[in-house]
Specification:
The complex is a heterodimer. Chain A is built from 16 helices and no strands. By secondary structure, chain A is mainly α. Chain A has a single domain (about 5-455), classed as Cytochrome C Oxidase, Chain A (Up-down Bundle). Classes of the chains: A mainly alpha, B mainly alpha.
Chain lengths: ~475, ~220
């Protein structure tokens, strides 16, 4: 081996774990896309697959969310945070074997969990629907990965830390905390009455706000300066944004209980805290966009950055929409409608996934040393952008229609309310198909780089045999 | 603003930043003590102002939506005008009467109030029903025997019910007769509970049913001919 730059050495040490987590994340992404499409089909045609017990709407919908959050989200978080933390710490990734061992357990646990859901052993808690037998396996494998990520961070060269490290490390540590609280309050020592509902909802929403969101924000805080070659504009605000998310987000999520059978102060606190969430959202968008707008040409020309800025823009716009929807006067219309689907999908597709795509396209060539063709990346960008926009607009407009019509008791339910929302379900079905296609493009892009021409040897052998 | 752009201006702008540089330059940024400048730094001031506004809005929102920190939502009391109260009372009386009619009367007089020709006299458009309130109240209190003529047809060949032996309260009689007097196109004034109890005590010694002509004589003013 000749003299390599330290970055190259770090990339080589991260290669095995990164490739493993990324390829399994890709698989889960495709599975989730399939489930999403099946669920969308069932909304437009209730008799689709209705004779098959495994594929009732309730099971498919839940399987999709779990495959997406834990399968795609979890694996992508491991891959992205291992690499970014290793690069920022200037430390090599150690214990790749243990990382992969834990990753295999994690993926097996999700596989069995999803099979359990499809077989009807679903638990009734939001985002904890997988049967509780797989929870210990998930927690233990997660803790092993957390430990190895912390080892990377501990062996960092520079003592001071910066924004991407705070966000990613916090997310890595918050997940087991959330998981243990929910596990304790729902299974070990079950809370009684309303509290159980509150806890289950809180866990499901906090998972998105305290696990997926900070990792995506951290990745953006790293990628924007790294690609643009500038420091983050108004960087002194970042620490304020970080602590605001840590302090406010777990409170703000309970506004989703507005109108539910819970004490009045719970949704009221939720509403207040979501209004206060304006600060961290403003801080993050000021940081990202003030930096990016200094060099728009470069943002447009670099595909990874285009993905990231799409993600941060979507984060800003839709978080503000979320704040508006948390106001009781608005929630009166939007609560219990398909607007909930809008919130979920904008967060996991429009924000988290887009930033992860950007991070992967930035990291993968450095790690494997092989470039992804620009046309393939560009194709992926446009199909996923179009799919996400179509999906979110359909859910937003459809949800408002749904809410306004459902609020009028004089209207007959099926002939006027359902038939007005039906066209939007058709659009989302089309959007999910488009997204599934774009995700297939992504996975093919990634796999072609990770496993370049797996049949090469086969063809060579045949040629030799022919010759 | 100016400090920030100066800082980023120092860095090589066209190349990607190396990771070590990213960490170092950002750490550097947090250590900068801003020199006192002629103008204020606007961004922190704007943030402080916005923060203040939002805390204000938030506290109003919290006080408002928790109903001033009470545990239970306010009980909404709707004040009705006297006319609305009267209309509501009558509506309830008629609904109750409808139920009593369906349970105890409709088997003979039919749900549409037309009775069965030759056996059970009709109640719809019957002058026996729409005449003075005392007529229908008395009939329900004691029953009716012998022949009567309703809308030109003769009834009374079948056995009549001895209503004196049927347990039915004054209020029930008032409700059901009010319903009957206002259903199927009938539009006679309501029957009050007081009237029924008055009649019950007045004829308390009477053991057998009324005969049609007896009643006609008693309330001759209200019958058409």
């Amino acid at each position: 081996m000749s003299e390599d730059s330290p970055d190259k050495t770090i990339d080589r040490s991260a290669r095995l774990a990164f490739s493993f987590f990324l390829s399994s994340a890709g698989l889960w992404l495709l599975i989730a896309a399939l489930f999403a499409y099946l669920a969308a089909c069932k909304l437009t045609d209730p008799f689709f697959l209705s004779s098959c017990e495994f594929f009732t709407y309730g099971k498919i919908k839940v399987s999709q969310a779990n495959a997406f959050i834990y399968g795609w989200g979890g694996n992508a978080i491991f891959a992205v945070s291992i690499w970014i933390l290793a690069r920022l710490s200037q430390a090599e990734v150690r214990g790749s074997v243990f990382l992969i061992f834990a990753g295999v357990i994690w993926n097996l646990a999700i596989t069995f969990g999803l099979l359990g859901i499809l077989d009807g052993h679903m638990s009734g808690h939001e985002m904890l629907e997988m049967p509780k037998e797989v929870w210990p396996a998930m927690l233990i494998s997660y803790l092993i990965i957390t430990f190895l990520i912390l080892v990377i961070h501990r062996s960092r060269q520079i003592k001071e830390t910066i924004a991407p490290q705070w966000f990613i490390l916090a997310a890595i540590l918050w997940f087991p905390a959330l998981f243990l609280i929910a596990w304790h309050g729902l299974e070990i020592n079950p809370a009684r009455g309303t509290l159980q509902t509150v806890l289950s909802m809180w866990f499901g929403q906090s998972l998105i706000w305290l696990w997926l969101t900070p990792v995506a924000l951290g990745a953006a805080y790293y990628l924007i300066p790294a690609i643009l070659g500038r420091t983050i504009d108004k960087y002194y605000l970042a620490i304020f944004g970080f602590w605001c998310i840590a302090a406010l987000a777990p409170w703000s999520v309970v506004h989703h209980l507005e109108g539910g059978p819970v004490p009045m102060w719970i949704p009221a606190i939720g509403t207040v805290m979501s209004i206060a969430m304006v600060f961290p959202i403003a801080v993050a968008s000021t940081n990202f966009h003030a930096t990016a707008f200094l060099d728009l040409g470069k943002v447009w020309n670099s595909l990874p950055l285009r993905f990231v800025i799409f993600g941060t823009l979507s984060y800003t716009v839709s978080s503000y929409i979320g704040v508006v929807f948390s106001l009781p006067a608005v929630a009166k219309i939007t609560q219990f409608t398909i607007i909930n689907e809008f919130h979920f999908n904008q967060r996991v597709y429009g924000f988290f996934s887009m930033i992860v795509f950007g991070a992967v396209y930035f990291a993968l060539p450095k790690i494997t040393g092989r470039e992804i063709p620009i046309s393939a990346k560009s194709f992926h960008f446009w199909t996923s952008t179009l799919g996400v926009l179509l999906l979110l607009l359909a859910y937003l407009i459809g949800g408002l229609t749904h809410g306004v019509l459902a609020g009028q008791p004089s209207l007959p339910w099926s002939s006027s309310v359902i038939s007005s929302v039906q066209p939007y379900f058709l659009i989302t079905k089309f959007a999910f198909l488009l997204l599934a296609f774009s995700q297939l493009v992504f996975v093919v892009n990634v796999w072609r780089v990770i496993f370049p021409n797996p049949f090469a040897k086969l063809f060579v052998d045949q040629k030799e045999a022919g010759a | 603003m100016s400090e920030d752009s100066k800082m980023s201006g120092n860095l090589p702008n066209n190349t990607q930043l190396a990771d070590e540089e990213i960490v170092k330059s950002h750490v550097e940024l947090t250590k900068i003590k801003h020199e006192p400048t002629k103008n204020f730094l606007m961004a922190p001031l704007v943030f402080v102002f916005l923060f203040g506004c939002l805390i204000f809005v938030c506290s109003i929102q919290l006080a408002y939506s928790t109903n001033y920190f009470q545990l239970h939502p306010p009980i909404e009391v709707v004040e009705l005008s006297p006319e609305e109260k009267e209309a509501l009372r009558l509506e309830r009386k008629i609904t109750s009467g409808e139920k009593i009619f369906a349970a105890r009367c409709a088997s003979c007089h039919q749900a549409n109030g037309l009775g069965i020709e030759g056996q059970f006299p009709p109640l719809a458009a019957s002058e026996w029903v729409t005449a003075d309130a005392g007529v229908i109240a008395n009939v329900i209190l004691k029953g009716l025997k012998g022949e009567i003529v309703v809308n030109g047809k003769t009834y009374g060949t079948s056995a009549a019910v001895n209503m004196a032996a049927v347990p039915i309260s004054d209020r029930e009689i008032a409700n059901v007769s009010t319903y009957v007097r206002q259903a199927w196109g009938n539009s006679a004034p309501e029957v009050t509970e007081d009237l029924v109890s008055e009649l019950r005590s007045e004829y308390s010694s009477k053991q057998d049913q009324w005969v049609g002509n007896e009643l006609r004589a008693l309330y001759s003013d209200s019958f058409g001919n």
